[in-house]
């Protein structure tokens, strides 16, 4: 994903999470907030968080790649006026890339992002 899609700053993470607008399933927690430039947003923005409970650095990076791939496949369906924080839960290491995409799509449907 391009840099313009990413949320990297800790302050942005905190402002999105403070709004307490979250949805979850067994593998993901998603926090949602509206973008600041709602007049003409080009695309959604997303921040990823994969904690140490998921596994070692190799496993965490693998999970992040799977999530980015799923987001890339769904980028035309996701509401461009949203900022998202996607948090992976430890159970995700057992899933394939396709299952990760299906679980992420499920959470987005719960949140009415898709």
TrEMBL record:
Signal peptide stretch: none
A matching Pfam family: Ribonuclease_P
GO biological process entries: tRNA 5'-leader removal
One cellular-component annotation, GO: ribonuclease P complex
Annotated EC: 3.1.26.5
InterPro entries the record matches: Ribosomal_Su5_D2-typ_SF (IPR020568), Ribsml_uS5_D2-typ_fold_subgr (IPR014721), RNase_P (IPR000100), RNase_P_CS (IPR020539)
Gene3D superfamilies: 3.30.230.10
Keyword terms: Endonuclease, Hydrolase, Nuclease, RNA-binding, tRNA processing
Gene Ontology molecular function terms on file: 3'-tRNA processing endoribonuclease activity; ribonuclease P activity; tRNA binding
Top-level lineage group: Bacteria
SUPFAM superfamilies: Ribosomal protein S5 domain 2-like
Functional description taken from the UniProt entry: RNaseP catalyzes the removal of the 5'-leader sequence from pre-tRNA to produce the mature 5'-terminus. It can also cleave other RNA substrates such as 4.5S RNA. The protein component plays an auxiliary but essential role in vivo by binding to the 5'-leader sequence and broadening the substrate specificity of the ribozyme.
Family: Belongs to the RnpA family.
Entry protein name: Ribonuclease P protein component
Organism placement in taxonomy: Bacteria, Bacillati, Bacillota, Bacilli, Lactobacillales
Gene name as annotated: rnpA
